[in-house]
Amino acid sequence: MATSLSAPSGGRPARRGASKSKMFFSVNLGNALEWYDWAVFAIFAGYFAGDFFDTGNDVSNLLSVLAVFAVGFVMRPIGGIVFGRLADRRGRSLVLLVTMSLVALSSVMIAIGPTYASVGVLASVWLVVARCLQGFAHGGEMGGSYTYIAEMATPRNRGLWGSTIVMSTVTGTLLATLLGATLRVVLDERALNDWAWRIPFLLGGLLGLVALYLRRTLREPEVFTDSRRGAAPPSTRETFRNMWVERSSVFRVMVIVAGTGVFSYAWSVSAPSYATSFHGVDDGAAMWAGVGANLVFVATLPLTAMLSDRIGRRTNFMIWGAGVAVLAFPLSWLLGPSAWALLAAMSLALAVQSFGAGIQVAWFAELFNTRSRATGVGMAASVSAAVFGGTAPYLNAWLTDKGLAHVFTWYVVVLALLGIAVAARTPETRGMDLDRGEAPEDARIPAGSVASPKIPTE
Fold first, then answer.
1. pLDDT in the model for residue 6
2. DSSP, residue by residue, 107-119
3. Among 150, 179, 249, 390, which residue has the least CB neighbours within 10 Å?
4. Which residues does 191 contact at the CB level (< 8 Å), separation at least 6?
């Protein structure tokens, strides 16, 4: 039975509206800081590689740290399952508090980490543990924040409100890149290698406490509380039975995240350091190019998300896939020793990326039912992020070092074409109500239909 989302009469709607705005701000600020910490690792990898690993080759140092970057992603599926189950049983807000605490802790651990020269292999172990803790928390944050924002939004504007999570993700990356560029201007490379790389991690830990304070007052979405009324929390058996029933949704999410994840990490996060290491772009100029391109990304995300609220999630994603498939090689050919060329390539790539990234929060939530939504989104998205997104920077750097950069570009194209095929066979879910207990397959309209989905209300 569907439950009404209308607010009680009287003065409640205005007060709830103000409260909802605060909830959106708190969740997005925390998400931005979590992704700030995550991006700082990739951006400053070249500066602290020698502190944690004992190799005589700079490229090897960088690859070693990027391998740890991937190890963090391995923990994300575990976090997605553990925290997803917790969110579906105990609530979304509890998970958002715990994940924020763990990310702040892991950032401080990296900031105060000992060097290889002082404690030997313990330094490498310390870094791996901190990165795994961060990955574990990020897996839970993905399912928790995606689900929370989608359930708090209205069906008509869910794409737009969902895009704020992606915007905060990009903002976190942008802040990390901006800080890196600023430090590169005011400090020389020796200072960054010796000690200044610790500043961004320490700052991330401190700001995490601010986000934790703001999140303490989060209330549960009505969609979630209504689903719990008169029903026991979902058991483990029920949750994984739902995962089996909704296995097509799990597969779809994994394919979508695979394509957008690889493209995002190639162009949004690691492109500046990649251009510096393999094309000779000045590291400071490369960071500023990253700042400019990510500003373009933030500006285009709400526009493409609003478009999805009108034309549908599938169409938006197919535009993304076609754009990536057509532009993947030209974008790679643009790269060279010029920071301006890097800015142009990144800006165009991220403008295309907005079509696939801005819709994901809304689309993923619409593919799962309320009692297993956080688990389904968290597990599927984090597994795919681990397998594809987490290895993308390492694979790109390794193939380029071997003279096989074109192989990685073909890899991007194949994932984009696979995404188009999956989107074409995914029923449209735009405008769907989330307050349902049945499996979403019964609530979707057939592929190719332009009508809004009819939700059973018996």
1. 34
2. HHHHHTPPPHHHH
3. 179
4. none
